[in-house]
Each structure stands twice: as C-alpha cells, then as structure tokens.
Amino acid sequence: MAQLDSVSAKNWQWPLDLAQYDRSPYLSETEECALVSWSNTMRVRAAVPRLYLPLRDVAALSSKQSLLERHAKAQTAILQEIQRTQQPYWAWSQQAWIDLVRHPLIHSSARLFITANAYLLCDFRLVHCIGPIFYLSGLGRLIFGEELFERECGRLHQALQKIGYGKVNLQQNFPSILAAVMLENRNPYLESFDTELLERTREKYSAQAHGIGKLSHGLAALGILPEPLRMRNYVSWKEKSGGGIAPQWVDYCRRWRETSTLQPKTRESNYSYILRAGLWLAQIHPEITSPADWTVETCADFLAALNRLKVGEWQLHSFDYTGRVNLGTPLGANSKRSVLYAMRRFFRDIQHWGWVRLKFNPYYHLATPNSILRLCGPNPRAIDDNFWLKLVWASLNLEANDKLSEIWYPLEMLRAISVVWTHAGLRQNEIIRLRVGCARAQNDPIIDETTGTTIAAGTLCYLDVPAGKTFTAFAKPVSAIVRQFITEWEAIRPEQGFLIDPKTGERVRFLFQYRGKTIGHSAINDTIIPMLCAKAGLPVEDSRGKISSHRGRASAVTALASVPQGMSLFDLMRWSGHRSPKSTLYYIRTKPTQLAGAFAKADQMSHLIEVLIDHTAVVSGAAAKGEPYRYYDLGSSYCSNPFWSTCPHRMACAGCDFNIPKDSVKGEALAAKAFLHRYLEEVPLTPEEQQIVKGDLQKLEAMLDKLKNVPTLDGRTPQQIHGNEVP
Fold first, then answer.
1. Where is the signal peptide (predicted)?
2. What digits encode the pLDDT tens for the residues 633-680?
3. What is the pTM of this model?
4. For the chain: N or C, fewer Cβ within 10 A?
5. Environment class of residue 306 by beta-carbon count within 10 Å: exposed (0-12), middle (13-18) or buried (19+)?
C-alpha cells in the first residue's frame, strides 16, 4: 500500500460537525409532550428534530442499506431512553450510555449502533466497557468507514506477514484489536499511533496485551514506532519493602539504586542486599541509621553475622521464602561474597558522590574473608562428554520432525541457533544479540607460526561478537559449519525492522529476530536444549544437573583446552571474551581421564634414577676389560655395580666395595670427568619397595632387618660391613 502524505497521516477529520447541533441539556415543552404521548415512532421523530436529526446523520455515514434497519432500532432505543430519563442524550453521563448498551431489552444488533452514536455525538470514551472485544471491529467500520478501516488493517497485516507472521495467526481478533487502538486514539490512521497510545490501550484491554504487542511489531516494521512494545505487559521490578528498616537507611538505598550505572539486574540484586543489611542494623545496632554512622567495629560485627547467616534470615517483607527447600541452611559462600561486593560498592559509590564521609575503608574493612574465598574457587560445570558429543551431533542434524509441538520458529533459525550454541562458546545474551552478517568467511590461507602448517581457506570463519559482560566487541574464529548454517537462515530470514540493543543502545538488525522481536532470554534453555536432547535421545539432565546454555559454553571451552596441543590459557581467554585468565579457569574442567594420564606419566618418571656413563672408559676399551663405566647416582654416593637395579640392598645401600662416596677422592675425580653423560633408567619396584615409597616406615625397618645377613656384591653381609651395628 502506498504511504500516506504527512498531513493526512496525522489528521483525521471528524465525520460530523457537532457545532451545527443544538446540544442543550434540557428538553423543551414540545419535546416533552411528544415523548410523553408516544403513539407512533415516525411522528415522534418528526416532533423532536433536535434529537433525531443527529442520529440520522450518524446513520447516513453507513453506505450499506442493510444497516439502516439496525440504525433505526438504535435510534428508537435512544429516544425511548430520553422519554424514561427526561434528559436529552447530550446530557447523559458515560455510565448512562453503558447502562443503555448493556440493558437486557436492547436487541444485540442495536448495541453497536447505540455505541456509535455515543462515540460520534457525545464524546463517549469507555468503549472498552461495552462488551467482548469482537464487537470492536464492527464498531470501527461503522465509525471510520469500511474502506478506510480495511485499508489500514491491510497495511498492518502485510507488514506483519513480511516479518514472519502467517495469515492464520492474524485472522483471530486482529481487526478487533486494531479497532480498539483506533477508537482509543480517535484517529484511524496508523501514522498517528505512538507508544503511549499502545500502552494506554493495553492497560484497558489487559486480556489482549499480547495482541497489542504483536500489533506494535507491525508498526515498527512500517517505521511508525522506533521499537515495538514488549510482547507481554511486563511491569517494572517488584518494589522491595523497607518495613522494619530505619527510614534514613532506606532513603540512601533507594537513592543509590536511582543513581547507580550498573546493569538493571545487578543493580536490583545489590539493592536487595543493602536493604537487608538495614534489617541487620535494626536488630543489632538500632542506633545506626545512616551509612555515615558505620565504624570499623560495625564492619567487623557485620562480617561475623554474615558468616553465620542462614537462608531465610534478614528477610524483606516483600519476599516470600515459603517453599524454599534450603530454608534454614547456611548461606552459600558465593552468596556471602555477593553480599559483601554489594556493600563495598554501595559505600564506595556514596562516598565518591559526596553523599557521606566514611569512617572506614570499604575495600579493606569489608573485604571478603579468606575462609569464604577458599570456597569460591573455580567449579566448571561442563556437560558430560558423552552427552556433549551427542548434542553437537544433534545440532548438525536437526530435521523438521524434531521440532517440538509448541515451537513455531522456522527450522533454519533453530538450526543456526543450535550450531552457534554448540560450536561458538558464546554466552546466552551474546547469542541473542548477534547481528545480521556476523559470520564472515576465511578467504585467505593461514600459516600457523608455531607449527608451520597451513590452514586452507574456508576451514574457519570469523564470528563478530557484540560487546558483552566483560569484553568489548571482538571477532573469534569458529568452525566454517557455523557460517554455513547462519547463511542458510539469513537466506530465508524475513525482513525485520531495526531494534535497540539493550546493552549498547545501537539500532541494529539482530540475526535471530523473527516477527519483529528477538528470541526470548529463556529460548535456548527452554526450547533449543530440550529439542536437541530429544533428538539425541538424552534426558535434560546429566550427572551434574540440568543442561543449560552456560554449561554448553563451559563444554566448548573445556573441549578446546583438553585436546592434545590444545589452546593455551591466554588464547582461551581471548576466544572466550574474558578480561582475565582467572575468569577462563571457571570454564575449564580437568577431565578425570586427562588427570589419570598425567598421573601415570608422572608416576613413571618418579621411578627413574640418574645414571652416569663414562664414555672415555667405553671408547678406550677399559669397559671391555671389566673396568667400571656405569655409575648410579644414589645422592651421597655412586654405585659402580652395573647390575645395581637387581641388588637387594639398593633401597638402603650397605656400603660395599662398589659404593663410591661423593666426598671421596675417587668420587670427586669421577664428577670432574669431561666425558661423563647423564641418563635416566627406569627401576622396577617390588611390592615391598612400593610400600616403602609410599612412606611405610615399618616396611622399611622390616626390609633392613631381613637384609642384614644377605651378602652384598663383594661377598660381605651388612652385619659384617657395619660390625654389630644393626642396619
């Protein structure tokens, strides 16, 4: 449809000139007599032209002859009500019109026409009170005209179809909802609609809040609204109760919330924490009502109380803990750390803003104790390997029959979201906020500087990630399969209007935007993951609990760190979009098999002993004549026995002739040899020796006692070497 010019888009001429009518609120004697002596409807109409002619003019606005009979019934009902009340309709209240429309004796076919007269002649504004919503489409056609109403409805219908809505979805109640907005606006042109009008209409027609939100997406697609309404009639954050807290403390908390630049969710949670600190003050330190009254002693008391806090204590009146399974259990370490962060941030901000002058240092006197920090270390919750591999397979092989019954997103869109989740390692918020054209091809080959290998063009692609929680916008390399699925979705993606990025404030076209809105924040957890689990034949929980979007991010990072020659911690930090490697550690899980392999390797190395080979003796031929050329380093001495590994005294050398102390002349000469090379030799341990290695001293003493009469390599026993001394 052609766009209207700027003048007609805003202005709609009222179809009747009300100034031409005599709108006196009282009946004349002639009118009273004509109405009292009612015998013939035609004669009454002729006798009260001041009252009848406006009604006739309203009827003349309808072009269809079939509607004249219904107009006549409405006119008769109005004149009869004038007779009963002895007041002209010009003087009726809004409620009087509602009572007439709802009167049980009024024919149903006449109700809309009575409402049309009230709307056009008497500024009737309670249209939402007349009855069911489906009445309104007919009322809109009566008041604004069939042609104009259908034209505007068609324009909006086409705009909604372009962004993904189907004809079936738009048939039910859609004309009535549009009529409700037109009637509230008292102007049928779409260009005259604004956000305030839609919000006002949604309050009056709360049952149709979703439909009015849908209508706003069409208006945004037409460029009439800068952005659509939220699809549900969301209210602001639930106001938290300040009951039982010093009013001055509550004022500081609320003022901080209104001033803080933190993200809304973080700001609200911190606001809750600092309010609860006010509850503690009221119970323990009622004399302290302002942040300026806090001292070092107060901080110490607060840390001690928080360390012993249980779930359900310091409870705001506006929060209901009923049904919490962990009620009465000690507060978790991470929760304690969050409370202390909120308190430090609160005190720091109000001091920087010049509201108070503190008597303590928040960062020192409210620092998180080490006893709590030790319990808050990294605890990666990566998905079990066997689950994760099947989910990756499922994301690459989704089919139309895999869609769950309640999913109405296009299959190509679901595939793209699934592959991005399993291959890109993004946060849920980052996936939702990806922009159109975010996947760029790798057109040139890449040479790996560390290995010298060449990565062929097209092996990877670059994914442009918007600014997130901890990092500015950046590009990350991912598998080329990601771009393939994104390109397939972009090829069929309906044209969508621009939306505001809630984090950056930019007007952008989101990649996963459909029907004028992005996917919901719970779409991945509640829609995508259950669908992938069903495809892979898996439950939605693994050994560590419910599978979630963020656990998938941890699995992607862990996979890149666990493979042979995997990415370094610094590279993973940049790939994940973290500012610090410490953050990345919260995503990398050390697999049990990987740990076992590392232990086995280290355990094998722990059984190696250093061997010195005298290459001079080997080359000269002295070794062939029986001269020693191999020396085992025993720490304080060398053993020249080439079969030391089979000697029964190797764990506690008895000091036979083969033993060369390092501090002896021969030992020092041996260490000074230029052609002495050092090697490692594996020593197989007997079961008894294994127990000794593990620290079993009783086994060591038993072995020494057992070997005291066993001959050494030179023929003497330890008893003979050391005399009567027990080894």
1. none
2. 777 788 887 777 677 776 667 678 788 887 776 777 777 665 566 655
3. 0.63
4. N
5. buried
